[in-house]
Amino acid sequence: MKERIDRWKKMVDAGDPDAMAYLKEITAQAKEEGKVEEMNAAADYLMSSASRRMDKVQSEIAEYTVLEQMGSLAEVINLAFIARHYFGKTRQWLYQRIKGLNVNGKPASFTSDEKIIFRNALDDIGLQISAFTGRI
Q1: How far apart are CA 36 and CA 39, in angstroms?
Q2: How far is 77 from 9, CA to CA, in rounded Å?
Q3: Which residue among 1, 13, 59, 103 is least crowded, i.e. fewest CB within 10 A of its CB?
């Protein structure tokens, strides 16, 4: 049974579409042979494999750059002003984070505090625009 479970694990790791069918087959065999412990270990492996895949999906979603999320808004607002006024940094520094450009070999991104500052900057600019349009 151990060899069959090891084979199944390799199939799962390789992304083999037949892995689930093979799991059903060895599960039926395990029931017949009374190999409950081995199948519990396989179930644990299946859960950890699913968790790893979910982590991968979440990281792929997170890879969408801020620029992609902003869409045309990035063309409307003055990012150089935001960099200077709200962060005390250069336009290039902000663009590196917004575009997810590589800095020192890894994609630049906002820290959690910087995300809050950026969000607050956009909110502040939105309020200023609203206040101005109310006076026209």
Answers
A1: 5
A2: 51
A3: 59
Q: What is the DSSP string of 58-89?
A: HHHHHTS-HHHHHTTHHHHS-HHHHIIIIIS-
C-alpha–C-alpha distance, residues 125 and 73, integer Å? 12
Residue-wise pLDDT tens digits, 2-58: 888 888 889 888 888 998 898 888 888 888 888 878 778 778 888 888 888 887 777
8 A C-beta contact, residue 91 and residue 79: yes
Query: 19-33 vs 2-14: helix axis angle to the nearest 10?
Result: 160
Q: Which residue has the tokens 């699913």?
A: 50
Query: Does this model's pTM top 0.85?
Result: no
Task: Give me the phi and psi of 102, to 5 degrees please.
Answer: -75, 130
Give SS3 for 102: strand
